[in-house]
Write a structure and sequence with these properties.
- 2 copies of one chain form a homodimer.
- With 688 residues, chain A is of the alpha/beta class.
- Among the domains of chain A are: 135 residues, Chitobiase/beta-hexosaminidase domain 2-like (Chitobiase, domain 2); 173 residues, Glycosidases (TIM Barrel); 162 residues, no CATH class.
- Chain A is 42% helix and 15% strand.
- Chain A has an 8-stranded parallel barrel, surrounded by 5 helices.
- In chain A, helix 23 packs antiparallel against helix 24 and helix 24 runs antiparallel to helix 25.
- The longest helix of chain A is centred in the last third of the chain and has 25 residues.
- At the A-B interface, helix 2, helix 6, helix 18 and helix 19 of A face helix 2, helix 6, helix 18 and helix 19 of B.
- Chains A, B: This is Hexosaminidase.
- Chains A, B: Belongs to the glycosyl hydrolase 20 family.
- Chains A, B: Keywords: Glycosidase, Hydrolase, Signal.
- Chains A, B: One of its GO terms (molecular function) is beta-N-acetylhexosaminidase activity.
Chain lengths: 688, 688
């Protein structure tokens, strides 16, 4: 009997373990205990809600039903949920103890119990219950004819309380529909902070009723009305997401100063010998909306009382639009050039005993605090605001790292030690087109970090940043997703959840499921390829896009001038993404082949070469009626050339001149064509 | 010399003719005169605007530049156009004599002259100039490396002044993004009226500030705020499009009566012997939002003064939101059942000497006229409003036809003869999923129509109607486009432009180009197929979808109850469209083969059979991990079965039992699977 019991137990454990690794949950829950049964889905599946939840759970549960119905085609009879305990006998019971409030340190935990005839969600707040519904959707399984959930008990809660995504709606405007679909996707991976970068050199994107000049002169007609902002804040709240707006000052001010040049710091250039001080008051500098990418000098004048008057009036309108406690004031990348060359500002510094521009910026930032306090808001800013006199109530947003000559995440740890609450974005710059592994393994608190419990608690979490120099509504989703789901997991799940193979497997399913929420990363790729093909067959372009990646870090838009904000983003680099689909499979095939050169492994490698040779031929044929294919041909030709030679080596055991081979390989390392690079270069090199 | 001249002339004409048929213009212009040269496009292509246009031309010309840049990848240097004569030397010169006003009978004509070094657009109004820019975009040609326009002179103007598209945003809500992208597409094919069906049994979709109950109780939270409506009216105006809102009364009133049951006509059911009259005032009928499709009885009470008070207050808010002169009040499909069973209403009819329900409805409709007049608006309504006392200022919207037991377009001619302005929608019901040819050949004024010039002038044009029982934002575009482009051509171009082969050829390019404007008909098909495939390869599903069409007319949703408004529209029928892509090609192959059974023609036919046999095998394999594929298998299997037998007959000259063959063929005529039908059935039958 003793043995029998042990055997049964072992079978369960083994079953559970097998099933657990086959699940496509993301972020991975804190605890999951699979049992051997199933809950079968049918047309009469329905939902009931009990407790004292916020009304958002009714919308959430209704959306849950529609999504599940869309996937399964079961034609559920239940339409809309509108009140508590409408349906006491329902198969899915959701109980929330109390109304949740979006924002930091709210209870987002949940327990999800799937039994063979009942599913029970228990959560302190409706925010936890919403997370449970997303987990349940991810638990969906099927065989050839039906859908079911495996029975299980999951208990879950987030590791960090700030799991954010920033979207820059300033450099390229991103309209309401883009924001909403991304809020849906954020909720699907349990992210809870939307940081909305609303103004920058390239545009002022928020209606200020007292100052219509801002949008009239500095938005090209593309901005959010206050009604739209309220609508989005409400939409986010329904999905458990806090919205943190950013009004970036005192730098990044070209747009603001286009409307109000009188509060700019720049002095008009005069020829030598003319007294700057005297002339300045009569000659007003003009500014214009910036069309390039980069760091620009236009900066507000911190010595001018009008600056604070205008900002006060702006915050008087901005603050009430947002329900959360934080307003992001930017504060980054002010290089102080216009301050240094402005005599009036130099005099102001002396008078106020401000030793340098850092102190001047702190002076400026401290002046903003009462403007926000008036509306019961605290200040958040990029790490540059962290100077010795900065209020400890401010949240420090850590962003600099190796690209900026700093240690990665260094300011985060420094902020926590200095007594500031802090959020990490260094390592989560998804606009830089780095592979998902880089972001996934970037932990806000690396294992060797020595921090007190108090200091640790100040590290609120992290935030993926989608800067929009190189994206439009057409391609932005493919830069955010699916990589941001990996960042969401980093911020939610246990720090030991770091298996890259598991990540890649699960990401494929998450990526597919994002389409359900309107995310366009897959569908719009095909739109761009059709555009390039000039309405011809896109199969060869698809193949090539699966081994090419857009140039990374800041190399695609060298000097910030190749692409203006109105340049076309409808070309090959815009269809390509990081983590090129075939590159990973090819690399694995190469590794297997190098380990064991049996015929099976050989064929796996050589089939890629054959595919690329045919693909190159197809691209050449297509190009006779598609000028936009021409720029790709040198690179696809290089891939064909090396493929042909490596086929000779591998299949015919034929010797090929090493310097020829090396030369052909290096052609595949070119970054001169179509703003992309071949993602298979390193794997090819292994074969040399 | 005489001969030489004639020869040169002949060459030009011949050149021009060849080129003209190769152009993909739609709607086809009234006059096009191609010459032999080209205008080469380059990075420094730019635009200048002169004259006294409405500001919409600056937005239009800027959008034109962005679209052309997106197609060609030339990185134009010119960013935004903001004022007249900014760029006097520009290659493209646009001159507008005066500010156009959107609406009927405005001048929309233009002349477009493309010379080898200059392009000149002359138009009376900016509305004509916008049309010219769309024509110019359609003129774009390319060789293997570059883009150019053929030199030409085009003079153009519309045949009809009302070229409309109606979108039903009530049955399934269609949010702002859906409306805007369809406005863009309408402008691309020179349509100028957007008819916005805003309320129906299934939802009240427009914010009424004085009556928030309407959206609170009868919209499921899905409606347009007044700010959004103003934004859309402005967006449409910028594109030369008039917005005509529809508040459908007195029928189709379930939503309105859900909020205000006290103005409904229904009397509560009592058991026999109870006095209806007495009880009615104390027992209020309740109504609820309708979830099915069909014609329902809830109808406003025309005898109740409160009805007119509420409608007056609604129109007081609705009218000022729209800049045009017309408000559509519906008036259709009131069957009067609740009027007949209501004693109070019967008494009201007697007292007011209204002989029947038609006269009662006319009484009701006439009461609306002053409500609109107050805001300087005229009334438009579906053909049911045309009764003998109806005001001649009303526009009659003709919709009934063979489906309703009437002659096609009969009410249109009757209205014109009766002195009414009138618009045709019968024959343009794009929701019924009929082939494009049916709509294209449906002329508002058929050739044999005898009308006086005055009567003819009353026929304003036509309108495609997109009723939304079976569409969501995911699939609506694939029901509207590209067929609506053919309707646009019917309404704009000369009545003799009727060549179906030319239409089909041009439609392929128009369909592709619609993606540029955000239309999702192609990309979302792939989303649905990926959903059905459960994230597997979609090639076989794609093939099958190219020979299947959704069930037509009203047969898909029999009785209106198979699909509720919250049913899933993510299944195979939703990925399929009319004019199935491969069906036309297969039919042509069959016709050629039957005409001449040479080996080439034989292979063209048999290659389809082989493809379908493999496809069926692939679908079976996919279905082992995709329950949503199961419902397709019987039909795909039938196609495989007949394909195998016909291969034997055609290739092996083998006799097959005719009754077996016939049996297999009829399996292909089944409408029982997955709400689709095989579009190749008729072509297969030809081979028997």
């Amino acid at each position: 009997m003793k043995y029998a019991l042990i055997l049964v137990f072992a079978v369960f454990v083994s079953n559970a373990q097998i099933q657990s690794t086959s699940l496509n949950l993301m972020p991975w829950p804190q605890n999951i205990n699979l049992t051997a049964g199933t809950f079968a889905l049918s047309k009469n599946f329905n939902v009931n809600i009990t407790g004292n939840p916020n009304a958002r759970i009714f919308i959430g549960a209704t959306n849950f039903l529609r999504r599940l119905d869309g996937r399964t085609g079961l034609f559920f009879e239940q339409g809309f949920l509108t009140k508590v305990n409408e349906n006491p006998e329902a198969a899915l019971q959701i109980n929330c103890v109390r109304n949740g409030k979006v924002g930091i340190n709210e209870d987002e935990s949940y327990q999800l119990e799937i039994k063979s005839n009942k599913i029970i969600i228990n959560a302190t707040t409706d925010l936890g219950a919403l997370h449970a519904l997303e987990t349940l959707l991810q638990m969906l399984q099927n065989n050839s004819t039906s859908y079911y959930f495996p029975t299980a008990i999951i208990t879950d809660s987030p590791r960090f309380t700030w799991r954010g995504l920033m979207i820059d709606a300033a450099r390229h405007f991103q309209p309401v529909a883009v924001i909403k679909r991304n809020l849906d996707a954020m909720a699907a991976v349990k992210m809870n902070v939307f940081h909305w970068h609303l103004v920058d050199d390239q545009g002022w994107r928020i209606e200020i009723k007292k100052h219509p000049k801002l949008t009239k002169m500095a938005s090209d007609g593309e901005y959010f009305t206050q009604e739209e902002i309220k609508d989005i804040v409400n939409y986010a709240d329904q999905r458990g997401i806090l919205v943190v707006p950013e009004i970036d000052v005192p730098g990044h001010a070209s747009a603001l100063l286009t409307a109000y040049p009188e509060i700019g710091s720049k002095t008009t250039n005069f020829t030598n010998g003319t007294s700057k001080g005297k002339m300045q008051s009569s000659a007003l500098t003009t500014y214009s909306i910036e069309r390039n990418a980069g760091i620009f000098t236009p900066t507000l004048d911190p010595s001018n009382p009008k600056t604070y008057q205008l900002l006060g009036e702006i915050f008087d309108e901005v603050c009430p639009l947002f329900s959360g406690n934080y307003i992001h004031i930017g504060g980054d990348e002010n290089e102080g050039k216009d301050w240094d060359s402005n005599i009036k500002i130099q005099e102001f510094k002396k008078k106020n005993k401000l030793a340098n521009n850092h102190e001047l910026q702190t002076y400026f930032t401290m002046r903003l605090i009462p403007m926000l306090k008036k509306h019961n808001k605290e200040l958040m800013g990029w790490e540059e605001i962290m100077t010795k006199n900065m209020s400890k109530n401010a949240i420090i947003h850590s962003w600099k790292g190796l690209n900026e000559g700093m240690s990665s995440g260094g300011s985060l740890i420094a902020a926590a030690k200095n007594g500031y609450k802090t959020v990490l974005s260094n390592g989560y710059y998804i606009d830089l087109m780095q592979g998902v592994a880089d972001h996934y393994l970037n932990d806000p608190i690396p294992k060797n970090t020595v921090l007190t419990a108090e200091e640790k608690a100040r590290i609120l979490g992290g935030e993926a940043t989608m800067w929009s120099e190189l994206v439009t509504p057409l391609n932005i989703d493919s830069r955010i997703w699916p990589r941001t789901a990996a960042i969401a997991e980093r911020l939610w799940s246990n720090e030991d959840v770091t298996d890259l193979n598991s990540l890649r497997k699960r990401l494929k399913m998450i990526s597919f499921r994002l389409e359900e929420l309107g995310i366009t990363h897959l569908r719009n790729k095909e739109v761009i390829l059709r555009n390039i093909s000039n309405n011809q067959n896109t199969a060869a372009l698809e193949d090539f896009s699966n081994v090419c990646e857009p140039l990374k870090i800041y190399s695609r838009n060298n000097g910030g001038t190749e692409y203006q904000m109105y340049s076309p983003f409808t070309l090959f680099a815009d269809a390509c993404t990081t983590d090129a689909f075939d590159a990973f499979d090819f690399d694995r095939a190469v590794n297997n082949y190098l380990e064991n050169k049996n015929i099976g492994n050989q064929i796996l490698v050589t089939s890629f070469f054959r595919k690329w040779i045919v693909m190159n031929e197809d691209l050449i044929n297509l190009s006779s009626n598609a000028p936009l294919i021409q720029p790709l041909l040198p690179l696809s030709n290089s891939l064909k050339d090396i493929s042909e030679q490596l086929l000779l080596v591998i299949e015919n055991k034929q010797k090929v001149n090493p310097s020829l081979l090396n030369n052909l390989l290096e052609q595949c390392n070119s970054k001169k064509h179509a703003d992309v690079e071949l993602a298979v270069y390193k794997s090819l090199k292994k074969l040399m």
